Amino acid sequence: MKSFDELALAYDNSIDWASRLNRELPFLQSVMSEYRTGRVLDMACGSGRHSVALASLGYRVVAFDTSEGMITAARNHAKDNNVEVEFHIADMQSFSSIVDESFDVVLCLGNSLGLLPDIEVLQNVVEAVYNVLSPSGSFIFQVLNFEEILNSGFRFFPIKGGITDTGEEVVFSRFYEHNDEHLSTLVATSFVKKGRDWATAISTQRVLHTNQEVVKKALISAGFENIDDFSDYCRNKLVPDKSRNIVVWARRSQGNE
Questions:
Q1: Within the chain, what is the greatest distance between any pair of CA atoms?
Q2: What's the whole-number mean pLDDT along residues 107-117?
Q3: What is the DSSP-derived secondary structure letter of residue 93?
Q4: Measured between alpha carbons, how far is 79 from 64 in angstroms, rounded to an integer?
Q5: Which residues make Cβ contacts (< 8 Å) with residue 34, sequence separation at least 6?
Q6: CATH number for the domain formed by residue range(s) 149-207
Q7: Which fold has domain 4-146+209-251?
Q8: 237 vs 46: CA distance, rounded Å
Q9: Cα(120)–Cα(117) distance, integer angstroms
Q10: Which pLDDT tens digit goes with each residue over 223-255?
Q11: Domains of the chain, residue spans
C-alpha cells in the first residue's frame, strides 16, 4: 500500500486546481489589494498551489505544512513556475517558531483550522495568528459550517478518482460519523489498483464542529476588531443553517478597509 503522503498527493492531484484558483484568487486579490507586494503566511499550505499563485502575483510568501511529501511537492511546484516561496515543515500549533517578522496577511484555507484537536487549541492558534500580523493585517480563512452539516444530516462525499505519481489508479471514498457534540470523525478509504488487484487503506480524522458562533468567539477573544464572513468566495451572505462553508476576512483594526 502507498504511504499516507503518496495517497494525499494523489488526492491533491485529483483536484481541479485551475477551477479552484479561478474561483478563490479574485477574492484573495480583492481583500489583499492594499498590501500589493506584502508578506503572506500560508498555513497548512498543502501542495502550495495558493502560495505559488500569490508569489506569481508579487507577494512575498512563507508557507508551511506538517507533511514532508506536500512540502516537497510545493517546492517542486514553485520551481516549475519559477517563483520563490519559503516553505517549511511545521505544525499550526507551533508555527511561531518558524517566523521572525510580522505578516500583512495570514491564510488558512481548506478547513485546516477544523482539523485542530479541540476548541481551546483553535483559540490558541487564532491568538498566535493575531500576534504575527502587522497592525493593519488580515486573517483570511475557510472552514466548514457544521451548523448546516448537522442540520442537513450530510455524511457522504462524492467518490473521487486519482492517479499516484507512479501511475496507479486510486479511488477515494469519504464519509462523516457524527458521534460527538463537538467533533465528527471523517473516515477515508483509499482503494489503490495494483495490477489486477486492489489494496485498501482506511484512515480517520477528527473534525471540529466549527460554525459562525465558534469562529467569531475565537476571533473576538483574540482581539480582531473587524470581521466579515461569507458563504463563499463570491462574498455571498452566510446563512448559518444553510451555508456549507464559512469564508472569513478578519482584520486586526477597524481602520483596515
A1: 62
A2: 97
A3: G
A4: 16
A5: 256
A6: 2.20.25
A7: Rossmann fold (3.40.50)
A8: 28
A9: 8
A10: 999 999 999 999 999 999 999 999 999 999 855
A11: 4-146+209-251, 149-207
